[in-house]
Amino acid sequence: MTGQQKRRRDKVDGLLLLNKPAGMTSNRALQQVKRLLNAKKAGHTGSLDPAATGMLPLCFGEATKVCAYLLNADKTYRVTAKLGVATDTADGDGKEIASADVPELTAEQWNAVLQGFLGESEQIPPMYSALKKDGKRLYELARKGEIVERAPRAIRIDAIELLEAAATRLVFRVKCSKGTYIRSLVEDIAAKAGTVAYTAGLHRETVEDFQAADMLDMNTVEELASDGLLQESLLPPDIALQAYPAVEIGAEAAEKFQGGQAVEAAAEATSGLARVYGGKREFLGVGELSGDGWLAPRRVFQMAEIAL
Hints:
Blueprint: E1 14-20, H1 26-37, E2 42-44, E3 53-60, H2 67-70, E4 75-83, E5 85-87, E6 96-99, H3 107-115, E7 119-123, E8 132-133, E9 136-137, H4 138-143, E10 153-166, E11 169-176, H5 182-193, E12 197-207, E13 216-217, H6 218-226, E14 246-248, H7 251-258, E15 263-264, E16 271-277, E17 283-290, E18 294-300
Parallel strand pairs: 1-13, 3-12, 14-16
Antiparallel strand pairs: 1-3, 2-3, 4-11, 4-12, 5-6, 7-10, 8-9, 10-11, 15-18, 16-17, 17-18
Helix pairs in contact: 1-6
């Protein structure tokens, strides 16, 4: 196919919360939905391991501008750990490298172990991760049998709940900060209990304020596309920014704001980022309140061109 014969892509804008299936990379999932939408521009926030399932926010068109805000979002996972066995990848795809007896702990004792991980701490990333060392991905080095020193990273566990503890199976739900490696967390939990473990199942339930009920699985996405209803099912970009306060400005100020100029927002005494809307509640973008009556554009959205 020549450059002149390339398929014309549509201007598609909005968010889709995909329930990523197991065995699919995050990028492959994105490209599949992008093709179904025939969208020009697309991106995703927060990759999931191929074996993992669950919430993967996909952003199209103007909505790709919210990707940076979602990358720092807190996330909730349902985790299944296999106790008594460790693998080189810390998940079920790796080869066994160690085994250990599993202590006979009660549910209350397992819960006490889990609660010990609440709060802020430091975590050493696993070798099988996408982090780079001297320009090379750690997983590339790990596949060659190399193990390099990794600097610990600050993480935060806001909530952790025991769901099941039976024989060699441990299931829990965890709400954590950006950058938390669940595979490392599982290994650390096992070590604290006096054994070893690997992550046998991982399902991301939430990202920031997005809820599991809003996810669409791939089969549903394909059916909606087949019926010509997929674009109508997209969420508006500003739904990803609900943590920021909303500011409404008039038509004249809206024109200046979208032209990159700071505008007066005298009624706003606060400071920090805010969602900015025009007089008809059309979303204009993300602005920063100075606290002294001014609102400066930080990310402008051309919502007049968006038809969701």
